Amino acid sequence: MTREKKLWWSFILVVLISFGVLLYYGYEIYQVAPPVPEAVVDENGEQLFTGDDIRDGQNIWQSIGGQEVGSIWGHGAYVAPDWTADYLHREALHILGIYAQREYAKPYDALQEEQQALLSTRLKKNIRKNTYDPATKTLTIDADRIAAYRELSAYYAGLFTDDPKFDQLRKDYAIPVNSIQDATRMQQMNAFFFWATLATVTNRPDAEVSYTHNWPNEKLVGNEMTMDLLAWSGVSIILLIFCVGALVLYQVKSGEDDELLYPAEDPLLRQGVTPSMRLVKKYFWVVSLLMLVQVGLGIVTAHYGVEGDGLYGIPIDQFLPYAVTRTWHTQLAIFWIATAWLATGLYIAPAVSGKDPKFQVFGVNFLFIALLIIVAGSMIGQWFGVMQKLNLVENFWFGHQGYEYVDLGRFWQIFLFVGLFVWLALMIRPLLPVLRRGGEEKNLIIMFLISCSAIALFYGAGLMWGRQTNLAIAEYWRWWVVHLWVEGFFEVFATVVMAFLFVRLGLLKPKSATSSVLFSTIIFLSGGILGTFHHLYFSGTPTAVMALGATFSALEVVPLTIIGFEAYHNYKISKATKWLQDYKWPIYFLISVAFWNFLGAGVFGFIINPPIALYYVQGLNTTPLHGHTALFGVYGMLGIGLMLFVLRSLYRNVKWNDKLIKVGFWGLNIGLLGMALLSLLPVGVWQAIESIGKGMWYARSAELMQQPGMVFLKWMRTPGDVVFAIGVFAIAWFVFDLTLKNKK
């Protein structure tokens, strides 16, 4: 069996086995997710609220922005608190206060240490007990917990409506006045907060650990790290070291590629440009515009962290609240990056065959219009949802679903899903004649089409939850989209596309390119598919999910540790021959991708991957540190690099404005590094220290986040943001200047 066949079989086995395990434990999550009771009753059987109240409350939370307004179980935005950590701490203090008055006629804080310890032990025993009856689907809670529920319901009602005594706290949390405009809706959202918090502290049946594996850390109720957290963290680190050593050994043994005689001139100069290939430049106009809008929204969103009710005194929260700006900021990042990559595919497919199939031009134009409708329509719908102008059903279909990165309404999700299959058809049709002819590039083209098919197919995971699906189950499918679709199969697509471009430029042999792509894909997917579970340690999943997530997410980091080889290889290519100087900046962007893959995805990703680390930092600024440097640093830079490759091919004899693109390249990289090191990293480290010492509730509290030192660190984003914005503006200006000045 040839090496290439072995790689193909290895690829098939990795995909089948990994998805088999992923789906099996998905089934397990359905079975053991925190149950939603049909009725919550007191000890006399009197009903307090129903399961419908909890489910409607989840939808109401989603309608105001959901994970864009604070977080639940650590997933979401960072200005407002994690509502489950906040609720749990306040509930514990209130019940302890009841105990203290009953036993000692004193406030809890006034008691002696021994007395506090006695009451704390009683609280742990009572609050952790699982009182859900699966036969009747009824949850029974005692009078003390009911009193705490009513007290906290009044507290959150004041915060989310218009109680003047919460004005400062609303400002600190960037929550507008009357975010909830109806008393019944507020009661239902309180029921959801109660249920979501209950899952964090109630022990699973026949277990001594809560549904969220004792997350968040809260000593008052016995939520502390477990031996499983420590053990699987150790396994992940040991496995990482072992696999890094094995991969380095393989890299050394494989040596350099065969020497290749580089072409004397650019092979793309002899390649024809079809009508549909010329149309992709308008996709890059959209990419540039969305980049500018996204960065502008990012600046406004970041500013809400220091001025929660407006922008330099302008009360923009009344018509453009934080939940909207953050939603648009994160969603547009996905939109423009995906558009850049999809446009690259639309250029490459006809370039290989040399001609457009029938209706290819129509298809490219149709897809472009559909893209504009999806972007504009979903953004408008999200604004209407957050501003509470839609009912719960309308909000689900056309407004704001409340899930980070998949906030767009179900109608827009389906529209986008169909659009991706239209794109897939536009990829397949030009390449079918080439596949029938065979040739050296056949296997590389097959891999290209597999990656395109995965991009279209796996977005469908976002359609697997319904309007009132249990949050633990919805989170499982959400991470299929965020991790597998965005971080997984787009990565495979990018690997294939870069190999394809280098083959077309005569810089790689098709056979060695295919082997390299297959090997890289096998290594990446070996950890990447089951690595999805590292997002689900504390989301109402069984312990086995944590074991698998810890083990396989460590493998995701392995190929990133030798990413310097790739960067050096790309740098050598840029110097290989004179005509390659025309591709200097596209190749430099690929080099920056390698750097951010190592730092953003590798270093900043791994510091939050082991269970013991994530237990204390999930939902802190260590997450956006990884998010910004990995999403933009890797996928954004790659999207820009691919765009520049296509533009270089489209405008072959045009001299580029090197000064402008140089400003763009260094502005983006220096600005992103400044944003990370001057603000996000120190804020995240400070929060982590407080989380370990005092608890997650304090690490996300206004008491900590509004301290002068913390506010100063938030302001320290400004230098990096400004430099970064200059870089984005320079890239957009370059694209418009190049394409509009050279229309022929």
UniProtKB/TrEMBL annotation:
Coiled coil: none annotated. InterPro entries: Cyt_c_oxase-like_su1_sf (IPR036927), Cyt_C_Oxase_1 (IPR000883), NorB_cytochrome_c-like (IPR054309). Residues 37-217 form the Nitric oxide reductase subunit B cytochrome c-like domain. SUPFAM superfamilies: Cytochrome c oxidase subunit I-like (SSF81442). GO terms for cellular component: membrane. It comes from the Bacteria. The chain crosses the membrane at residues 7-27, 229-250, 283-306, 328-349, 361-384, 411-432, 444-465, 485-505, 517-538, 544-565, 585-608, 628-651, 663-689, 722-740. One of its GO terms (biological process) is aerobic respiration. This is Nitric oxide reductase subunit B. It comes from Sphingobacterium lactis.
